[in-house]
Each structure stands twice: as structure tokens, then as C-alpha cells.
Amino acid sequence: MNKNIKTILLVVGIILLAYGFYTMVVPETKVAVGDISLVEAQDNTNAYIAIALGILAVVLSLIKGSK
Question: Which domain of life is it from (predicted)?
Fold first, then answer.
């Protein structure tokens, strides 16, 4: 694989991992009026997808190519 492509994959992977962990850790704002809660639970599906794609990009960037 080309060195430029590996570098781009590594940078994109690190950015995706950081974004995924950030969205998982930062809590959503809750709006509650009395007993009615407008946001009940945080859905981390997008965070898991971003983390998985980030791991995949990092692993692909670290694979050695044939000479």
C-alpha cells in the first residue's frame, strides 16, 4: 500500500477513535419537567460505529505491504 494512503488511514483512524470516545463519554443534556423526562437514555450506537471504524483504519494503516 502507498505510504500516503497509510498515513491518511492512520490520521483518520485516530480522529474516528477520538470522536467515538468523546461522544460516548460526554453526556447528553437532559430536559426534565416534573416527572416527564425528554431524554431518557443515551444511545451509544454511533459512538460504537465510530470506534470500530477507527480501529479498522488504524489496523489497515499498520499492515505491512509486500515489496
Answer: Bacteria
